[in-house]
Design brief:
single chain; 267 residues; alpha/beta; Protocatechuate 4,5-dioxygenase, Chain B; six-stranded mixed β-sheet; two-stranded parallel sheet; 10 helices; 10 strands; 18% strand
Length: 267
């Protein structure tokens, strides 16, 4: 396979939102794992990656400032082989400081007690298996309103001109109670999940961040996201994108019936 080219000067890096689904995609040869690997084939090789993962969801906006972020196994009940996975990508304290300045030093802080959780590494392990590209992870402030997250996402946009890949990881629909019930069969996709996935997709085509935020408060949105942790990474991706960016959907479909695995690429 021919390696992707480095970023072209003057051409912004894309913004990605990826539905990461089960951490088992890191060790099983699934269609989703194959889709993650293919994502890296059509984009320039980034100088660094800023990851916004649904799984660092807490009070406050933080950035990983460590030089060697650990691989966090933030799940339970999986095969032992999954807990042995390591993604030893380096950190980038300089980038973390740059992002903090973009967000506002009064709004964000650096921490060295976190690392890369599975929302980040289960996808990047497939995209960049050699783990050579530096990765910084940004937390999601659970007490911040969606428009506050949108403001942070917009502040990240200049990174695209610096060769940084903005990588948001969640799921378009993420009702695990429903998905686990459907896993016992039959694996039918409910109407609400299809409607929400379709409406979010159209909002992405229209670059309509206001509509995306409104969808999160809709009846289907509350079914799709009993908690907003997997929804809010989409807000960052929408906000960091430019209105003129082309949008594509390199991965789509449902896992466990109601869990949308759709990915967006802006730019």
């Amino acid at each position: 396979m021919i390696a992707p080219a480095p970023p072209t000067p003057g051409t912004p890096m894309p913004v990605l939102f990826v539905g990461h689904g089960s951490p088992m995609n890191a060790i099983q040869d699934t269609p989703w794992a194959q889709g993650f690997a293919a994502l890296a084939e059509d984009i320039p090789t980034p100088s660094a990656i800023l990851a916004v993962s649904a799984h660092w969801y807490l009070d406050g906006t933080f950035l990983t400032g460590n030089t060697t972020p650990r691989t966090i196994h933030d799940f339970g009940g999986f095969p032992e082989a999954l807990y042995q996975v390591r993604y030893p990508a380096p950190g980038d304290p300089e980038l973390a400081g740059r992002v903090r300045n973009l967000l506002g030093a009064e709004r964000a802080a650096l921490r060295d007690d976190w690392g890369l959780d599975h929302g980040t590494w289960s996808v990047l392990l497939r995209m960049y298996p050699q783990a050579r590209i530096p990765v910084v992870q940004l937390s999601i402030h659970q007490r911040l309103a969606p428009r506050g997250h949108a403001a942070l996402g917009r502040a990240l946009a200049p990174l695209r001109d610096e060769g940084v890949l903005i990588f948001a990881s969640g799921n378009v629909t993420h009702n695990l109670q429903d998905a686990f019930r459907r896993a016992r069969g039959p694996l039918e996709t409910p109407d609400w999940a299809r409607r929400f996935d379709d409406r979010v997709t159209q909002a992405a085509r229209d670059r309509d961040l206001d509509r995306l935020i409104a969808l999160g408060n809709s009846d289907d949105g509350r079914l799709a996201h009993p908690t907003p942790d997997h929804f809010l990474p989409m807000v960052y991706a929408f906000a960091a994108a430019h209105p003129d960016d082309p949008v594509t959907f390199p991965i789509q479909g449902f896992e466990l019936g109601s869990l949308s695995m759709r990915a967006f690429r802006f730019g």
